[in-house]
Amino acid sequence: MKESIITKIFKQFYNISGPLDEYKKTMANAIGNTTAIMLYWFNILIVLATVIVGIVTKNYLLAFGILSSSILIFTIFIAGGYVIYAGHKSGLANQEVEQSNLPSAYKKAILKSIGYGLITAIFEYVLTSTILYLYYGDFISQLQSISSLINAILSGALVITALSIVFCHRIKKVD
Question: Which of 62, 93, 124 is the last residue of a domain?
Fold first, then answer.
């Protein structure tokens, strides 16, 4: 049976490998519910704190900065980190492979990490060039900048190395 796009997004978000069975679906739903509750209470607390800061200091720009940066930091690092940690702890990301398919699984893991590394390098290159363009102008010369290129290559290499280690570590041999 072919997976729907929603199922593919669900599996990608929770980093589920293999078929989506009842255990994996239940664990992912429990992780999602816990994350939603964390975000709900955090948003209530940070909005109240922001209102208090805004009223006390009469500096609404500061209050908005606190609100927006806190929500971004909490959502990306705390909630995202929890989803990654809980998914790893519950074994959602483990890829069970038979002994005969082990070399192929490692090859796929390394190719997947190379793909993510290339995407990261291209994104980093364009983003760095765009930011430098906003400050210094002349977008073409920023694209030709050696520092932007070196930064992108190093970022891509770091992502490839880190993801290769993580993806290969998730491969579990089944007897």
Answer: 93
The token pair at 173 is: 């041999």
What pLDDT is stored for residue 1 in this prediction? 63
Paired tokens of 78: 């705390």
Residues 174 and 107 in one domain: yes
Please state, in angstroms and rounded to a whole number, the distance separating the CA atoms of residues 145 and 127.
13
Is the domain of 136 the same as that of 171?
yes
Task: Provide CB contacts within 8 A for 159, sequence distance 6+.
Answer: 113, 116, 117, 120, 121
Contact by Cβ (8 Å): 160, 124: no
- Tell me which residue range forms the domain holding 129: 96-175
Name the pLDDT band for 136 (thresholds 50, 70, 90): confident
- Whether residues 61 and 122 share a domain: the answer is no
Domain end: 48, 71, 93, which one?
A: 93
Span 72-122, pLDDT tens digits: 899 888 998 899 889 888 888 888 888 888 899 899 999 999 999 999 999
Two tokens, residue 43: 């948003």
Exposed, middle or buried: residue 2 (CB in 10 Å: 0-12, 13-18, 19+)?
A: exposed
